[in-house]
Specification:
This protein is an alpha+beta fold and 234 residues long. The chain is built from 6 helices and 7 strands. It is 42% helix and 15% strand.
Length: 234
Amino acid sequence: ILNNTNLGFPKGMNIGIKYAIKKHNPKYIGLLNNDLFFSDRNWLKKIIEIMEKDKTIGVASPMFIFPNGRIQRVGEKLGNSLALIMIKVLTALPEKKYKSEPRGIKEVDVFLGASPIIKREVIEKVGLLDERFSPFLVEDVEYSFRIKKFGYRSVTVCDSKVIHLLSYSIRRLTKEDIEKDLFKVYVATRNALLFSFEYFGIFKTLIISLPIIIFTSFFESKNKSKGLSLNNLG
């Protein structure tokens, strides 16, 4: 499907979802980023088998690995602290390093947005991606919170592994890169405020979320594979 303009992730995906449902009447919908490699030919089968057995699972994602096989992202629980939720949503802090490779199913608060597999019934009950978050960022967080309201769970199927070409290297920024980064900061700030107002209200947003959003508008981890620290602050 060729759109006349770049509609961004939520709007573009919604067009695809509606087309797929009308044209193919599927039981599942997959939203795949364009920087994925599927070295495991059975990655999708493993996910569907899990989702078929458990009616409470609304969205499931594979575990992400780097091209060298190192674990990149499994997903994690955010907890009940609004401050911690906002920090994790805005900074994409690296997950803990696993001593052994995770196996089985891991329940998460926010599904891994680069390749979620969503049950058709979830889309029909919960709705499409929220297009207010266009062109990108935080729409997966909002959708995860929304499906939870409807009683569905988000999980990562660790036995299904997909290579995700996410760049964690430190790079020298060109003028064009800086402009893109500034636009990304603007979108992240706007969408984080929108999400916080929606789910936590005005008071908590102003007192807790806003200071974190302001901080992350000016600072970030220079090396994304490491945590926030004075030596790794950019």
